[in-house]
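Input record, target 12 of the design panel.
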């Protein structure tokens, strides 16, 4: 309040009207709490004249331990007629703008601007650069429509490989007797504002379904609030002064009405967690009198970086709007987890492909790259799941695709311990005219196609959510196995979609060809989830591990625990089909016959217990063999404590197969100045050589 009474503002206190008030939690700051020692600073950021009077806008901060916690803004109107334009000004923190410099003409036009200065002459501004501009304008008025001075300062930024903003340009402009702001007008013509709320596709919906539950009555006297707030403007407490000011009565403090309205926002939208209301800004558009009945209306209208943007309105008993504003509310703490292989299904992501331009762009970019480089359409595989696909190598494009397959290699160790580099497709040479991929369940379940389909599905879905403002940029994220690639590509933006497709296809084809397969492409390996807690109360990870190890040793067969997901509740076992079928039978038997291994261990010696377990495993092995003969193949079925994972027919956990790309990228980030070279472009450039 003190900031609005400087000596150079000619205004009558009785004609002072509070127009608006708002606050915003400073990014990264914890909310103030009872017991915090705080200080406050405020300054006038604009004084403007209009037909209604003189508007004064104040911006301030609440500080805790010297650090800003909350930004507060308020606007006030001195009613009357004012002509002292020489004392009016505005300081505006402009919206951030992003400009994609897609042509040399766009680069040239920007560089010709006298207010733009590129900071590093040794590194030229190139086509393809995306600049983000942060600027502040200081405007001083000569009269109602002409500025005596226009000054704009700020900078141009690029995002580094670690997603941080790095300043690369300086903005400095000053002009006199101007009719506009050419810097901001340039941004509006050539760029897009960023960080603004994104409206909901439906237009919005009511957050309070029972209007009677969101009403309050203003106090009959404003004295109590005047004392606690320090606002003793007599129009709030003295009917004679309010009458002298031509007001209908003592006016309820706008700040009281604001807080009373916010109460419903905190309870209905923030689930009684006031700290989740990170921004709140309301205008006082009508007078509120003591004893008024106020109805609050809250509407969810938009999203911004994972925060709900809520339209805040309040109406008196005559249905006249008295408060109009907006708020931002954090959603409950969230995490984004990207799934691994085994969750694929035919047609996944295609509904979003049809309805979301953002998702379609991700799919189309991946599809165009895979079609031109490897000769197949991932969109067609996801939609139709063909059991067979023939890639033809005719013509110039076909020859380039064949050369790509011939260039795919992997390292192996021979019997002498020597490292050998071998082709992944030894059956493709310069005379091969075509190559056929097949899978008995359809190619969507062939690892090399499964993995691409999943990461593109997840990347497309995430980008669609991000474009709608649904993603909380401060949330935790994780990827499970293959999902690590999706998480890094989607959230950390590590790989462009073309490089992501290259890496995942190489990863998948290496896994697919790492095991022997029959003529139809079927392997003798699989994975399944196991839940020890479903076997019995005392059955634990230790017991599961003992059984898995004994099956492997007793039958000289491959089976291992390869994922430790949730202690005593979820593990993933991989190995040969017979071993996994035997494990299912063992756990079923222990469950059905209520055999308590822990209890038996107190009644038997270790040798006797192992002998008992050996008998159980032999019997369950024989059951698996007999069923295999009857079915003609091993068919894994769901058990009391086991679930087969469809589409995974390799005997190892795949996350360890391809550490090279991430290590390579980390090396580039550390060794290369991100302003000179883009690590992700280099990854895309060198991936063929890494393969």
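The sequence produced for target 12 reads:
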């Amino acid at each position: 309040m003190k900031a609005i009474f400087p000596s150079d503002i000619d205004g009558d206190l009785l004609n002072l009207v509070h127009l608006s008030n708002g606050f915003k939690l400073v990014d990264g700051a914890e909310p103030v709490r009872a017991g915090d020692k705080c200080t406050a600073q405020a300054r006038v950021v604009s004084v403007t004249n209009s037909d209604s009077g003189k508007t004064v806008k104040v911006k301030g901060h609440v500080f805790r331990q010297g650090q800003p916690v909350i930004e507060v803004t308020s606007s006030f109107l001195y009613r009357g007629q004012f002509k002292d334009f020489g004392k009016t000004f505005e300081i505006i923190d402009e919206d951030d703008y992003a400009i994609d410099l897609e042509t040399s003409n766009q680069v040239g036009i920007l560089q010709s601007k006298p207010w733009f200065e590129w900071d590093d002459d040794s590194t030229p501004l190139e086509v393809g650069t995306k600049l983000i501009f942060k600027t502040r304008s200081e405007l001083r008025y000569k009269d109602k429509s002409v500025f005596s001075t226009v000054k704009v300062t700020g900078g141009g930024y690029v995002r580094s490989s670690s997603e941080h903003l790095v300043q690369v340009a300086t903005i400095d402009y000053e002009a006199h007797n101007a009719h506009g702001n050419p810097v901001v007008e340039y941004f509006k013509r050539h760029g897009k504002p960023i960080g603004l709320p994104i409206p909901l596709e439906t237009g919005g919906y009511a957050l309070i379904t029972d209007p009677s539950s969101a009403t309050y009555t203003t106090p009959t006297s404003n004295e109590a609030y005047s004392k606690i707030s320090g606002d003793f403007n007599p129009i709030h407490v003295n009917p004679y002064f309010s009458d002298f000011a031509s007001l209908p009565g003592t006016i309820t403090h706008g700040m009281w009405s604001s807080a009373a309205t916010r109460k419903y926002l905190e309870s209905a939208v923030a689930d009684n967690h006031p700290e989740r209301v990170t921004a709140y800004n309301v205008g006082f558009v009508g007078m509120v009198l003591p004893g008024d009945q106020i109805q609050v209306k809250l509407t969810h209208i938009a999203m911004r970086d994972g925060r709900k943007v809520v339209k805040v309105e309040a109406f008196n008993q005559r249905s006249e709007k008295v408060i109009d504003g907006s708020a931002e509310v954090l959603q409950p703490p969230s995490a984004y987890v990207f799934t691994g292989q085994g969750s694929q299904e035919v047609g996944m992501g295609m509904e979003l492909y049809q309805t979301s331009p953002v998702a379609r762009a991700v799919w189309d970019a991946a599809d165009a790259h895979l079609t031109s480089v490897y000769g197949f359409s991932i969109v067609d595989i996801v939609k139709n799941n063909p059991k067979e696909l023939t890639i033809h190598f005719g013509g110039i494009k076909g020859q380039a695709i064949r050369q790509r397959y011939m260039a795919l290699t992997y390292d192996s160790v021979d019997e002498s311990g020597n490292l050998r580099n071998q082709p992944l497709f030894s059956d493709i040479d310069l005379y091969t005219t075509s190559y056929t991929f097949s899978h008995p369940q359809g190619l969507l379940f062939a690892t090399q196609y499964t993995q691409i389909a999943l990461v593109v599905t997840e990347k497309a879905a995430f980008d669609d959510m991000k474009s709608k403002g649904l993603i909380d940029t401060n949330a935790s994220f994780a990827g499970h196995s293959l999902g690590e690639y999706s998480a890094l590509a989607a959230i950390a933006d590590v790989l462009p979609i073309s490089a992501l497709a290259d890496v995942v296809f190489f990863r998948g084809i290496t896994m697919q060809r790492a095991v022997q397969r029959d003529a139809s492409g079927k392997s003798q390996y699989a994975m399944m989830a196991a839940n020890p807690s479903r076997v019995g109360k005392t059955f634990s990870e230790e017991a599961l591990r003992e059984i898995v190890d004994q099956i492997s040793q007793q039958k000289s067969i491959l089976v291992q625990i390869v994922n430790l997901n949730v202690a005593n509740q979820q593990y993933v076992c991989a190995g040969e089909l017979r071993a996994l079928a035997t494990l299912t039978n063992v756990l079923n038997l222990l469950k059905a016959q209520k055999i308590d291994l822990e209890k038996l261990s107190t009644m038997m010696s270790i040798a006797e217990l192992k002998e008992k377990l050996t008998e159980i495993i032999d019997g369950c092995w024989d059951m698996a063999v007999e069923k295999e003969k009857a079915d003609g193949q091993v068919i894994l079925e769901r058990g009391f404590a086991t679930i087969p994972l469809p589409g995974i027919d390799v005997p190892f956990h795949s996350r360890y197969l391809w550490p090279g790309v991430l290590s390579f990228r980390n090396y580039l980030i550390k060794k290369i100045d991100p302003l000179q070279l883009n690590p992700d472009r280099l990854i895309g450039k060198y991936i063929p050589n890494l393969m």
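The longest strand covers residues 165-178.
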